[in-house]
Amino acid sequence: MHRKPSFQHLILAGMIGVIVMVLSGAPAAGAGTAPQANGYYYTVQKGDTLWDLSRRFADSPWVWPQLWTENADAIANPHLIYPGQKIRLARKKAAPAAGTAWEDKPISDQIHFRYSLINQVGFVRKEQVAPHAVIFQAREKGRNMLAEGDIVYLKPENGFALRPGQLLTVYRTFDRIHDKTTRDYIGIQHLLLGVVNIVQSEPDFAVGVLTRSYRPIKLSDKLMPFVPRAAEIRYDPSPAGIDGVIFEVEEPVSQFAEFHTAFINRGKADGLREGQVYSVYRRDEETIGARGAAKHVSIPVDYGELLVLHVEENTATVLITDSDKEFYTGARIRTPFLQAR
To answer: What was the pLDDT predicted at 287?
Structure first.
């Protein structure tokens, strides 16, 4: 039984059956626009060919139809690709792989992951963010749950001034999180809920409009400055020797898998950066050798993969990008094997 390949085994699945040279001029009409779907992309460079990219990433230049299908909106003519085009990289189960191609410069510099929900991604931090304001009332009396388009009244906090035109992120915090094994303090989860635009400011309150709501918003939710994040996250090779755990999932679920966001107990202090990829693994216990001389060994087995979306000093927020089975909090993560060698 074959396992879905890891990030290092991502391939360009669907390559042109003939060598297609990248033209150096500007794209012709219908050459395609920037991709919108979430996933891994490669930015085409002058001199690239789909044939050559297939050989580098998949060790096979012949499986071309799937790539064209995957990028139909961006590649109008499969015989023409242009510098600057972003080609989505597809996975194919049990396909051959180049192994370390993703680590080779300048290839890794041209790979990124597009995540359109990046501004909704929260974080865990040791100290709670000091709120600039709180929502104390809605214009529509009696409403406790708020959503996009609602007008809200805000009370400034901690001496912060609110001014018209200012954008604020609505967030909510929860109980302090401790390691389930050691009981060491980890931090406080900050769940991002939406965005408020300040439209009027008075001496002791401000009026705002909810311009975005990612999740249900309620009275008493807090606000901090809105800092937009780039949806394109450049791939960054992971440092060797990282080993940690998924200690919490962002949404309140008991088990999770692909497309869920979660938190790991490694951060900037450990060398983590946005765009790095880590394996989710378990340890299988095996007995080897003849009776009387048998030895017990613990073998690490990968069964998933995650991408770092946001990094704090001692924690990181991650997106599960691959899973062979459901995950639970406490699942272990490590530097991918191919990068650790």
So the answer is: 72
